[in-house]
Amino acid sequence: MKKNIIAIGMVALAAMAMPSCSDFLDEAPKTALPEDKIYSDTTYIESNMQTLYKNWRSLFTDRYLWEQMVGTDEIQSGALQALKEDGGRRGSLDKYDALLTSELSFVVEQWEKRWPTVGEAAKIINAIGGGNLAPGTKKASLYGEACFIRGGLMMELAMLYGRIPIIDIGRQDQLGYGRQPLADVWAFIINDLKEAAIYCPTQNVPGRATSYAAQMLLGYAYMSAPEETGLRDFGKAAAALKTVVDGPFRLVDYYDLWDYSKSNTAESIMEWQFSCVWPDNNMVQFQIGSRAVQSYFGDGCYMSGYDHAVPTQWAYSDIADGGIWEDGDIRRDESIRYDFTYYGVTPTLDNITWEELGDDHDELLPHIKKYEDFRTDTHSGLGLNNMWYSGKNMPFLRLANAKLLYAECLNETGDTPGAVRQVNDVRRRAWEGSLPADKAWSESMSKDEFRTQVLTERVRELFGERWRKFDLIRTGRFLDYVSARNKWAKRSGTIRAYNVLWPIPLTEINQNDDMSVGDQNEGYR
Asked: What pTM value is reported for the model?
């Protein structure tokens, strides 16, 4: 079968479903110029790079975001979706039952949306080459950004699917397009991010990579590489993350992080740029708002939506009720909506009793609040009048996250007191700059206690920011925590250890000459 690596004229189609990662791996450019001439033109590469960022950004929009959010102990599908939608297939993302197969559309499109961008980034890397580049030049910066994109997306693919193909054009005849050994995959990812850290610019336009963004992802890669690869290295991760923590960033008021008028704050290392104007809106509120609110107030209420992703009871409850929230932590009410009263009217479930969900109705239980965008509301005066136009910037990499990751590394390398100080810096902000003595973590905390507590602290700080699944995978807590805290997984009782990975899409296995049914992940068909 013909193998292609993203035809130049097809890059704009990267958001569309593609049949196989091997189907976009060698096709000649749709241009009269040979490829080496095209990629000697930094103007062309720059234009192409902007498209690659938009493709990655699309994974933080619409349904593509919740597909990666649900199925954890932090966020689960709403009851209607989990129990009734799509003949039960929708709910398999949380239940991890027999309907979670290699043909499930949600699993397939997460695979298919990444590979075209990986392939085009590989083309840029191959054409520019890193050996003789002078850091600081335009060509070097573009090379670094391409490495950042390929390495970052391949890391996500490896964490979701395990062993994946390696797309390195200079070695493609040798490598083929089959799944590669895990150690080789992670070594390749780490090398890309190391190159990105060297060649990405120290400053860049919002929404694009810098050397700091690359160092942060490099640190996460060293922390996430499976232990069996021999590449997990908290010392190297700490060194990369220290560069970020000591960089030109500072924690800002937590409120400011979710204020659409204060985008790209001093805490932002990289955030995805959106607006309320199509096609640059993110549509996230449409997916995560409340169906009961929509039934009362219509699409022009900024709290409206369709419950595709909602907090688990553990993630929205106070510690006294078996959850995570402490008295006085301002992050609770900034992250999660508990009250749906709208201009003096409190909606009920009366308009949606047709769903017949009984005690499972959750449309007025707590919802994700961070991404609500009042500009979409009829009362904003902007005329958008539909939550579908939600367009707040989406955080990707920010300082508080880097500090918590750095703290993990310090703990793992024997400096638990230093780790606690990093966490207390983040927690101090959560109490508006004055951390009560009884809320400060003790520097005498044990290493094991810190490991457990910091994972919960990451939910408090990063709730709904798409890190939880990756965190559970890298720390080995996925099975225990999801089976106990995700309502649908707990009720179903069908989650198994192998569900830490998704199945390789059947379309890939059927259409990639270098894969066969024997390449499917354990437990799947």
From this structure: 0.95
